[in-house]
Amino acid sequence: MTGKPMQSEFAVTTYVSQSDLDNLLDTLQQRGYRVVFLDGSSVISKASLFTQVEKDFPLPEDYKRVHNWASFEDDLWNMVFSFEEDRIALVWSHVERMLDGGLEDFVMAADVLTGLSRLVYEKEIDLSIFFVGEGPNFQRLEH
Questions:
Q1: Measured distance CA(138)–CA(121) in Å, rounded
Q2: Which residues are registered as beta bridge partners of 14?
Q3: Which of 9, 47, 55, 106 is the residue whose CA sits 20 to 30 A from 71?
């Protein structure tokens, strides 16, 4: 931590086309981000999100208790602060699957993630969130 104001390269949340996933992951790794990947291919609700988080995120065993939004936020907080890196990218693929039938859960998850990103930014940690999906809501990366 330098004491200077930190600047993020990315917005708090960025919506990216699924077709650019590999390019996004390469770009993040080249820029020194620790990438935490959530495979959203089977995520359609709060319950399936929590199950996938427990599978995909590097949470210590004693933190794998995701069963409500508060524990989801607590576990993400603990995960972020367990990393040595101060540049972290959370990449959630196939987000469009939650838009049909799980929209309310997606909005809540996005709120938790963006809130956490803003909180850890105050501690000089860059947590950038990437929602990756198919359809017109997900833009191609600029090359």
A1: 25
A2: 130
A3: 9
Residues 43 and 4: their CA atoms lie apart, in Å, by: 39
Q: Which helix (H) or strand (E) holds 89?
A: strand 87-92
Could you tell me if residue 135 is left (phi over 0), alpha (psi between -120 and 50 degrees) or otherwise beta? left
Q: Which amino acid is at 14?
A: T
Number of Cβ atoms within 10 Å of the Cβ of 59: 18
Q: Residue written as tokens 């917005």?
A: 11
DSSP annotation of 13 reads E
Q: What is the dihedral of CA 60, 66, 71, 74, to 10 degrees?
A: 30
Pairing of strands 126-133, 87-92: parallel
Residue written as token pair 């469009």: 96
Q: Token pair for residue 115?
A: 């809130």
Give the model confidence (pLDDT) of 45-81 as tens digits.
999 999 999 899 887 766 656 789 998 898 898 899 9
Distance separating alpha carbons of residues 20 and 25, to the nearest angstrom: 9
